[in-house]
Amino acid sequence: MSGIALAKEQSVKRRKTKVDVPKLIGFIILLAVTVAMIMPLWFMISTSLKTTKEMFVYPPSFIPKYFAWENFKELFTNSEIKFGRQYMNSLIVGIATVIGTVFSSSFVAFGFARYRARGSNFFFILVLSTLMLPYPAIMIPQFLLFTKLGLHDSLLPLILPSFFASAYMIFLLKQFFSTLPNELYDAGRIDGCKEIRLYWTLTLPLSGPVLATVAIFSFLWSWNDLLTPVLYLDSQENFTLPIGMAAMLSSKFRIAPWNLMMAASLLSVLPVVALFAIAQKRFVEGIVLTGIK
Amino acid sequence: MKRSREERRESRNFYFFISPWLIGFVVFALFPVLASLYYSFTEFDIIHAPRFIGLDNYTELFKDDQFWNSIKVTLKYTFISVPLTLFLSLIFAMLINQKIPFRGLFRTAMYFPSMISGVSMALLWFWVFNPQAGLFNYILSFFGVDTINWFLDEKYAMWALIIMSFWGLGGGMLIFLAGLQGVPAHLLEAARLDGAGRLRTFWNVTFPLISPVFLFQLIIGLIESFQVFTQAYTITQGGPNYSTWFYVYNIYINAFKNFRYGYASAMAWILLIAVTIITFIIMKLSNRYVYYEGGSER
């Protein structure tokens, strides 16, 4: 035993002293790529704090000479932009979407995970096949439907569909719910639980982590979505952030206000940063579990 | 066959719980798919009722230069961006999968940008590519490259979008990383004992084991890149000279700017068919590939 341990230790030592050239090159590549990935973010932050004058100075400065915090104030006070209003709209849509997706998808996934019926396999395959359904292929009739319902230029068309479960999330949650032991449910039934209580008081409390994953990803999708808001929203006070920022870009400012737009970009990234900071592990797990990015 | 009460109860519960999805499926998927098929055979401007015109939309599409251009543009983006992104994210995943210092930091830093998608990313990169004071030309200037008007020059606009797309490869990298960590260490050890080098070990052991992950990413990547919209809408508006006139952007313009809902629906259906066929082909090919690997192992 000790002989083997000793040999192992020696080989570890030997490996340590020898420089692994491919590994070193790998390290350098990774370092370079990481710097390249971070640099645009740095550029965004520094531009957001530059004055209009310094913005176009060439070569670009990496740290602003004067920190123009007023850019951020301008975003919220400039009545042409309506940034604060749009931020609220995006938050409302994001939070409502999370609530809708979490509850409806877990409800449906519970059905798929715990009950068998004739046709249950067929329906599950149907769920999976809708994963491949491109949104542009169905957006025109959806648009006409919501317009007919008088919901044009309101946030509802962005929110409502989330209350009818998302295929990705059903799949993810079903996988998790299927791992919960049957005995648990039998015990619950013996205690006189109705099926809906088995879902509500038994399953959901046990599913915190996976529900968090669902919440995070549905928030991100909603937060970043441009195409749906573009179809439905007309007036600037109803815009969500993405369409509001896109409108800023095409509006007729005399000089393109890149500092303001980078400030807007930065603020719109904040919830993403916050989510990432709070739930970094969850992100990684979510990706690993589902392949969702 | 008579079913027991228990079975009936179970089946009732099943339909009760899946009912939200069932309703959503009919209203937000099935009905729109069928409706857009119907609209694709009509002339429809939303003000007047749809007028049935048979295959006219489709025959017109085939003579429409903009239609063919949007396919060309989309395929160009897809065939360059998707394989390169896949390749790079796999390489980086393999590098991070080694025991190297700061790997957690590298992983985080490379993954984070992929969370910033949509307009924030588009705005940021539009500014990075700015010809007067952007970061990108400044860095290129160290390598002796002259100022490039990225989004104003039809030769470069597409390339700028492709370069942008690499910024999001962290998500794919993480998926590959997960796949790589699932490769059993004893198989790699066995390959090393057999005297296989790094490259051979990769091709004969690692890659076959992560090929399902690869396949999944390939399909998702293709479907996503067929649907590029945000960059075209935000940054280029399809230009310059239609060089970034993506397929979905074309659908959007035809439906919501030109109010030709029938014509756009025909395009939407062609997209649907293309996505279905491509998914089907890749699945079929992969079946053969997986079978071949399994057979040759013994």
TrEMBL record, chain A:
Its main location: membrane. Residues 87-279 form the ABC transmembrane type-1 domain. Keywords: Cell membrane, Membrane, Transmembrane, Transmembrane helix, Transport. The chain crosses the membrane at residues 21-45, 87-110, 122-146, 158-177, 198-223, 258-279. GO terms for biological process: transmembrane transport. InterPro entries: MetI-like, MetI-like_sf. PROSITE patterns: ABC_TM1. It comes from the Bacteria. It is found in: Cell membrane. It holds the Pfam family BPD_transp_1. CDD domains: TM_PBP2. GO terms for cellular component: plasma membrane. The keyword Membrane applies. It is a multi-pass membrane protein. PANTHER family: ABC TRANSPORTER PERMEASE PROTEIN MG189-RELATED (PTHR43744:SF12), ABC TRANSPORTER PERMEASE PROTEIN MG189-RELATED-RELATED (PTHR43744). Belongs to the binding-protein-dependent transport system permease family. This is Sugar ABC transporter permease. It comes from Cohnella abietis.
Automatic annotation (TrEMBL), chain B:
Its main location: membrane. The chain crosses the membrane at residues 21-41, 77-96, 108-129, 135-152, 159-181, 201-223, 261-283. SUPFAM superfamilies: MalF N-terminal region-like, MetI-like. One of its GO terms (cellular component) is plasma membrane. Residues 71-282 form the ABC transmembrane type-1 domain. InterPro entries: ABC_transporter_permease, MetI-like, MetI-like_sf. It is a multi-pass membrane protein. It is found in: Cell membrane. Belongs to the binding-protein-dependent transport system permease family. This is ABC transporter permease. It comes from Cohnella abietis.
